[in-house]
Amino acid sequence: MKADRVDAYIIPSADPHISEYLPKHYKCIPFASGFTGSAGTLVITHDFAGLWTDFRYFEQAGEQLNDSGFELVKQKIQHAPEYIQWLNQKLDKGAVVATDEKLLSVLLGDLLTQQLSAKGISLQSKDYLSPIWENRPELPENKAFLIDEEQAGQSVSSKLAAVRAELLNHQADYHFVSSLDDIAWLFNIRGTDVSFNPVVLSFALISHDHATLFIHPGKLTEEEKLALLKSGTEVLPYEEIERALKQIPANVSVLIDPKRNCYAYAKLIPASVRIIKELNPSTSLKAVKNEVELSNTREAMLKDGVAITRFLKWLEDNIGKTKVTELSAAAELRKYRAEQDGFIGDSFNTISAYKAHGALPHYAPSAESDTEVKAESLFLVDSGGQYFYGTTDITRTIPMGETTAQERKDYTLVLKGMIEGCSAIFPKGTCGYQIDAITRKPLWDHAINYGHGTGHGVGYFLNVHEGPQVFNPTNTPVPVELGMITSVEPGVYRPGRHGIRIENLVTTIAIQENEFNEFYGFETLTIAPISTSIVIKDLLEKAQVDWLNAYNTSVFEKLSPALNDEERQWLKEATKAI
């Protein structure tokens, strides 16, 4: 930095695809600082080094940054680049800020340039990590594979046709795609390049008469490349994307998603090309699941429900008799999932959190933090599976024995909020922030709130976090569409004591149409018992009690054929009406 006269260096948590989950090659923040959380930004000046992250990671960051030279800077707003304002205050006029622009989204690059330039601060692209990162992991070369049209419910050529129709609407000649889940959906391709998400490192460039997939040559067989060619897709080496962007013809227009393309690659596009910054068309198309995807997801939920039920029974049978810890419980749950047909792996790192650890919404047990689970208080388990035919995400908070009055009330209010969210009926055009408010109201009535969103979209054998819809307080103008799969997961977190979250996945369905509008609601997809042992029934309205009893009855009816007699008897008791 001194040699280049750089005053501040920014290290984002990203890769050239602006991914949430990163291949090991791009885990720059853990390498530089030791912090392993999935959200954060490092900023290094000549006299300061800080990690900006949100409330989910305050405790984790405090521990991992100890003696690292980095200080924790607590963000006020999740995902907000608050370090930009800090840089403006900290740096002198005419200072230089650097970052690896391959790790910067177009949106963030534009924002940085705009907000820093007001003070004459310039932005440069520098990679200071590669020269000092000994034995840096190589980019993965794992084999990828194609899923057939019968499994995907739609051919590659028809998906490309749908994207091209959107390009016409935007008057775009080309479309550059970097986001791995969009590419996986578009080309019916899956892989193992990134933990938890079955995606493949790749780029795509699409015009009205041609599509090119840029991917490591060894990932696909010749037969698979031929199959893609028949769908109108040429396969070229991963590194060729830079040349292809530079060779986009003059005076055409290119659609790019500013949130999901990197700043460095956007700058390779010739200056004569008109850039249209819009959401990837595939993001909205993929969010609305077709009938095959929904049917297969229901099958995945059945398999997942069997695994969850066996885990819950195992937990009840063993607690207080053999030593159970957060890590051993997570391993046991994975074992039950792995027994299910079509299981690929976890869809995210299991949150296995006992007592006070439950108050950390994104807690992940480690060898250092692993805690014994005892026959008292609450145990929160948030987990999910990737199956060949769907992706699951479920949270259950499990009463382990004696509980406090506060725990019982909090549990009931969270359950009440989850039921209200899952049973909401709303007019077509309703957005996620409205569902968020409906879900929070039972907690707000008691002056309780939670700091994370109420729900996120979920992919089909894809990313467990998927847009464009989101149920959170931000006024994101994305309507809740038919066929979308979204989580509903309110919570209560009392630091040092306990945390409670209950989560089901739902898909949007039509309810009725009348003179007022089309009205939508939710079909609950998750099939696993919700514990009722500590529910305070008087805090629930009759409709909520009816929903809970009907849900648990349905769980028993759907899962019991796949269980043995002992498991079936346990589930019958666990799903008794209150």
Automatic annotation (TrEMBL):
Coiled-coil regions listed: none
Cellular component aspect of the GO annotation: cytoplasm
UniProt entry tagged with the keyword ATP-binding: no
Protein name (Swiss-Prot/TrEMBL): Xaa-Pro aminopeptidase
All residue ranges annotated as the Peptidase M24 domain in the record: 297-506
Record PANTHER family: XAA-PRO AMINOPEPTIDASE 1 (PTHR43763)
Annotated keywords: Aminopeptidase, Hydrolase, Metal-binding, Protease
Gene Ontology molecular-function annotations: metal ion binding; metalloaminopeptidase activity
A Pfam family that the UniProt record links to this protein: Creatinase_N_2
Family per record: Belongs to the peptidase M24B family.
Region forming the signal peptide: none
Lineage top rank: taxon: Bacteria
UniProt source species: Pedobacter hartonius
Stretches assigned to the Creatinase N-terminal domain: 1-118
Stretches assigned to the Peptidase M24 C-terminal domain: 518-578
